[in-house]
Design goal:
single chain, mainly alpha, coiled coil
Length: about 80
């Protein structure tokens, strides 16, 4: 059981770190966009910000789906335990 807890914490830390990096990058890009005078550079930054935001949205959606699957597995295991 401790192995699962350690692995879960490792995954949690990894996911949290990735999401924090994406959020930090979005914040940096927003700041750069407001200060950028060059239209072409601003457009590139906007494109990168859109792509990073899309990646973050997909990440959140995947985490939500994993959570739903874990709930189903937990319900199934609890159902089996009741039968023992």
């Amino acid at each position: 059981m401790q192995i699962l807890q350690k692995d879960w914490q490792t995954q949690h830390d990894r996911i949290s770190g990735e999401m924090q990096k994406m959020l930090k990058r979005i914040d940096e890009l927003q700041e750069q966009i407001t200060q950028e005078a060059n239209h072409n550079k601003r457009e590139l930054q906007l494109k990168e910000m859109d792509e990073t935001t899309q990646q973050l949205d997909e990440y959140i959606q995947n985490i939500s789906e994993m959570g739903q699957q874990l709930r189903l597995i937990t319900d199934f295991v609890n159902h089996i335990r009741k039968g023992l």
